Every structure is written in C-alpha cells, then in structure tokens.
User: Fold Glutathione peroxidase from Undibacterium fentianense.
Amino acid sequence: MSAYDFEASTITGRGLPLREFLGQVSLIVNTASACGFTDQYHDLEAMYRDFRASGFTVLGFPCNQFGAQEPGDGDQIATFCQRKFGLSFPLFDKIHVNGKQTHPLFQYLKTHAPGILGTKAIKWNFTKFLVDQDGHVVRRYAPTTRPEDIRSDIQQLLNKNRISPQLSN
Assistant:
C-alpha cells in the first residue's frame, strides 16, 4: 500500500485517483485560507513551479478542523487561492484529518509518519507529508516548518536519494 493507492475529490468535486501522481515526489499539506500559516501558500507555489518539471507536486487538502479557518466551499477556496496566491498546484475538496471522518489518505499518512512521541493526530493546519516517487511517506513536518526548509529534502528525493526519517511534529 502507498499514498498513491487512494482517491480524493478535487476542489471542483471530480474524483481523482492519486495513482496519477505515481512517479512524482509529492508534498501533501492540510491547508486553510484564514490561518496564521496561510502565507505558506506563496512558498508552496514557488516550490511547485521550481520543481514540477523535475517530477514534484504539491497536493493541498483544505481542512476546517482547526479554529474554523477554512469555512468556505470549494469555489470560495479555489477563488481565494488563485487570486491571492496564484496557485496552480492541485487542490482537493475539504476533508477531515482527525477524528472518525478522517480521510483514508490522512489515516495512512499519520500511521506511516507519526509526530513527536508517536502521536498520530495532526495538531494544526499546514502539517506537511513528503512522499517519494513510489508513494512511501518519507517525513512529516510541523506546521511551523516553512516550505523553504523542506527544499533540500525534495531535491534529494528528486535526485533519487533516500533521506532518513525524522520526527518534527
């Protein structure tokens, strides 16, 4: 099993098998439009543009579970992200990342990359999971980890080098 064995609905409601990203390095992020970390969209988009030709993508999953910081519907989220940040990486429909309604992808990610002390719960918006070309979870990053600080890990994976797991959330 891998992260690319799941399916998710895009921000426009179309089902998308994540196997379409097989062969790419992915940074999977739970996002929110009204969060103190929302400006990370700038750096996420910059990384996506810098590395997409090399086989990298960012997959954004809006979530309203933390401080109700993603209250809009898909159209509102997409419009906000496009206007304010010029996002071009894939955005998905709003999901749950914790609790009984947790999306199966995030269950998988949390199981394969727990946080500090083995905790599985996601603590806040903009928790990031780095996934290799085969869909294996390589590392989990805390919301406070800036996308720029992940750049070297992404470059290593794009160069087909393994990086050692590290807990940072």
In short: The helical segments are 40-51, 74-85, 104-112, 151-158. Residues 25 and 154 are 7 Å apart (CA to CA).
